[in-house]
Write the structure tokens for this entry.
Amino acid sequence: MALSLVFPTIALAQAAAAAVAAADPNITAYPAAFFTEFRPITSLDMVGRIPGFQFDGGTSGRGFAGTVGNILIDGERPPVRSDSLASILSRIPAAQVVRIDIVRAGAGSIDMQGKAVVANVIRRPDGGVSGSVSTTLQSNTEGRFQPNLNLQARRQWAGRYLEGSLSAYQGSGDDDGIRERRSPTGALLLLARSQGVFDFHGASGTTVYEGPFAGGRIRLNGLVDVNGSGYEGNDLLIVPSGRETSLSDSSQTKGEIGLRWTRGLPLGMTLEVLGSQQLIDTDSTSFYDTPDFTSATVSDGRRGETIGSGSLKLASLATPYGSIDFEAGSEIAFNFVENGTAYRFDGSPLLLPGDDTRVEELRSESFISGVWAPRDNLSVTGALRYERSRITATGSAGDSETDLSFFKPRLNVAWTPAAGHQLAFKLERNVDQLSFGAFQASAAFSTGIFGRGNPDIRPAQIWLSQARYERVFGRQGSFVAELTHEAYDDVLGQVVVFETPPGSTEPRQYNVTRNVGTATRDTARFTGRLPLDRHGMTGGIASASLQLRQSETRDPVTLLDRRLSGEQPVTLSLGLSQNLTGQRISWSVNASTAQPSRSFNPSTLSRFSNDPSFSASLTWRPDDRLSLGGGLTVSGGSDNEFILFGAPRNRGVPVYSEISRSDGTISAYVNLRRSF
């Protein structure tokens, strides 16, 4: 009897949620009928058609807290960390979507996790049996092919959901270009023609089960992923004559399981429990042979993460001053990384501090949050998070144990002054995820630059303030302006130390990562979509995205102010698309500008620049089950230039400058997808 009530219960819950969406000005519901003219195949296609919404797949930081994206499935976040939100959405057929709610900050029924906007994909409770087979074949100007195959199957019945998918891919490509090295006086020191061939392959499988369990609902996820890559490069030296050869090979095996259990409690409360376990094994080798030296590196690594979290959401409390919603919870996570690397230089072993390390982090984060809605069009969200962690490092770079704790407050204010307009403000303190790579050694034999691991570092802390304006007009028109200011403390940077390595009597120069000071970054982002129906192009949309960034920090070597390393100051992309309803065809063309950047290290300065890139695609969907598409991508060439100094940049002079120019590529693909 209980099982027979599952389906009506879910249907009633969805009906209640739909009523809430209709009554809440912070929720805009897009029913399935809204997307009919675009003939979407998956829910990912549907999300891409929502005006003003910018998809955020989340980050790869450790733990659940602070890494989530802006997508919900039936009001909840998937508990798997490695399965991307884009992949999850692509496995939900459009025919199984009832509607998509765009939820803005202040909606009391949704945990926004600090996001200004999230998309909540609501599925049908009983979609039956369905699946798909899709394949893509890509080819480039070098005549190399890159095929992939994806299989998906799912069944929805009586409030239960079972899904499985398998995918496999492989490919290869060429990396050709010119290397040119000159002295500070301009004399030619090296000229080479670079020819490289790379290959890659991989396969993955996922499975999902959802259903009733212990008076609530449970979702179980599993993922297995195996991939590898290789590279063979040959530089034909013209000046001076000779040859340089580089070989590399890497492989990775990943496994992950996750669960989420939710249950309603008395007095309108809701309990949610999340858990995840992830293990990753990596292996890599590299070999470098030049007229001056030979080097070899063998590395073996393993890392893992175990997470458990729980939260309790209270029923909405009605007061004379507006409704109030409260939620509290806690998360605990254990992470570890162990890595061993063996170096050889001219046939002899080379020992470096940090070539054999193990780092462990035990971290907890607790929070309490509240949403106050004094008026229908105004809401205030406040949250206080407290994070504690203990980081233990052992290995050849030394042993250390560090205890850290941080308070992380958050304030969100959302105001909807009129239909189609929303203003939002956010102020919060975040803590960066500490990169375990800073605990490990590194070696660049071609430049003679070596890095030692540092077990005594702290994560950077960031105060972030953001103002956002959103304007939605017509069926597809939108404009979003977002201004963000970030103030960093304990920024990580590299400095130089001198240390006598194991087995040697002479000190050697090493680069080491340390906390070096403060930084600021200001970002302005503007995106827009303009329907062109009134301008003679039925079904056409012009789109644009512009991002401007300005940052400042103190260089830890020269003590001069500069930008943050690797930052791209300007990013611009333009697009034009059209949906031809009668012909069941959609097409698009896109262009993006070059994205130059500069990187700063103790003994090098690097500059990267590339040419603009272009892409075009065409999709024909003769019926709801078949999709045939193709496209063309033109990737511009790139220049990578670096200057090597004979000593740290504050007192050294340039030894040489080298520029590597890579040719651009043109690739084309065809794609076929059949649903059942």
